[in-house]
Amino acid sequence: MADHYETLGVSRSASSEEIKKAYRKLARELHPDVNDSDAAQERFKLVTHAYEVLGDDQARRRYDSGGDSQSFGFGDIFETFFGGGQRGPRSRAERGQDALLRVELSFEEAIFGVEKSIPVDTAVLCDTCNGSCAKPGTSPRVCDICHGSGQVQTQVRSLLGAMVTTSPCGSCRGYGHVIPEPCLDCRSQGRVRARRDIELKIPAGVEDGIRLQLSGSGEVGFGGGPSGDLYVDVSIAPHQLFGRSGDELTCELELPLHEAALGTLVKIKTFDGELELQIPAGSQTGDTVSVKGKGFGRLRQSGRGDLVVTISVKIPTKLDSKQKELFRTLAGLRKGDTAGLVPRKSGAFQGRRRG
To answer: Does residue 144 fall inside a structural domain?
Structure first.
C-alpha cells in the first residue's frame, strides 16, 4: 500500500501547512470536475485519504508511530491489531437532537388538563428521499476504496517490525458507501427544516415549572435517523381571584360582619360554574369552608382536590348615626365581651376549617 507522504509528495517532516498546500494543489488537478479520467479519479481518492490521515494530528501520530524517534504505547498496539474498537462501517443514520418547548396554560387548563396543537419549526424527514440522502431513482454506492468496510488498512514500520493499522476510510468517512447523486432538497442530510404541529396532551393537575417529556417527538436525526425527545416546560398564568396549594384550589371570601355573625348562604362563581356555600354562624377571619372535588386534578391519579374558601370578616369603617347607635346597643347587650391577649398556639395560626 502506498505511503501517504509519497502520495501527497511531501517529506515525513513536512509541517501541517505544507501538507495542506500539497493536498490543495493535487485536488485542483485531480478533482472529477476538472479531470474525469478513471486514473485521475482513483488517484484523487488516494490523495483524499492520505490527507484525511496526515491532516489530522492524532491520526498522523498514530500513522507515524514506531518511526525514527517514537515508540508504540499499549493503546497504539491495541488499535493496530484490533482496529481501535470500531468494526465495520458506521451507520449514516444518527439520533436527532432533543427539543425544548415552552407552553403557558391558563388556570382553568391546569385544573382540568387540555389538548393543544402547537406549531414548531424543527427537522423532519425529507419527503423527497425518505431519509436515504440520495436523489430519487438513485441509491448509495459501495465505496470502492474500502469496499464497504468503512475502514482502510495501512502498513507502517515500527520497532516491532511491519505492522498494519486500521483507520476510518477517508473517501466515505467510515460509512462504507458514498452517495454519487445526493438529494437536492435535503442536501444529502435525509431531513429538512419545516413547521409541523405538535399535539400536546397536558394532564390535569400540572404544576407551574413542571417539565413533560414526549419520547420521539423531537428532531429527526441526520440520515433519516430516529427522532430525539421533546421536552415541554409548563408555566401557568396567575389568576386574579384563585390560587393553589397542592391539589387544592384556594380563594378568599369577604363577609360583612353581620353575615359572619348570623351565618348565611353565599353563591360564588367557580371553574365548575356557580356554587352555593353555607357559611356557619359565628365564622371568624381565617376560618375555611371546603367543597370536595372542586379543586385541581390529581396528577397521575384519579379524582380532584378540594376547593378551599378562606373567610375574611369585613369590619365597617364608616358608620352613620343610626348604625353607631345599633352597635352601642349591641355592645350593651354583650358586656361580657372584653379585649384581651390570645394564648399562643404551637405552629402558625390556623383558622377553623369547615367542610
So the answer is: no
Which of 18-22, 69-73, 285-289 shows the lowest per-residue confidence on average (mean pLDDT)?
Answer: 69-73
CATH number (domain holding residue 311): 2.60.260.20
pLDDT by residue (tens digit) across 166-194?
Answer: 788 888 888 888 888 889 999 889 999 99
Provide the domain count of the chain: 3
Angle of helix 38-54 relative to helix 16-30, nearest 10 degrees, comes to: 160
163 and 232, same structural domain?
no
Cβ–Cβ under 8 Å, residues 159 and 192: no
43: alpha, beta or left? (left if phi > 0; alpha if psi -120 to 50): alpha
9: containing domain: 4-88+151-167
Q: 1 - beta bridge partners?
A: none
Backbone φ and ψ of 336, nearest 5°: -75, -15
pTM of the model: 0.62
- Please, are residues 251 and 242 in contact by the beta-carbon 8 Å criterion? yes
* DSSP symbol at 96: P
CATH number at residue 40: 1.10.287.110
The CA distance from 29 to 8, in Å, is 12
Nearest Cα neighbor of 355 from 301, 300, 287, 259 is 287
With contact defined as beta carbons under 8 Å apart, do 53 and 59 qualify?
yes
Close Cβ partners of 1 (under 8 Å, ≥ 6 residues apart): 153, 154, 155
Same structural domain, 204 and 303: no
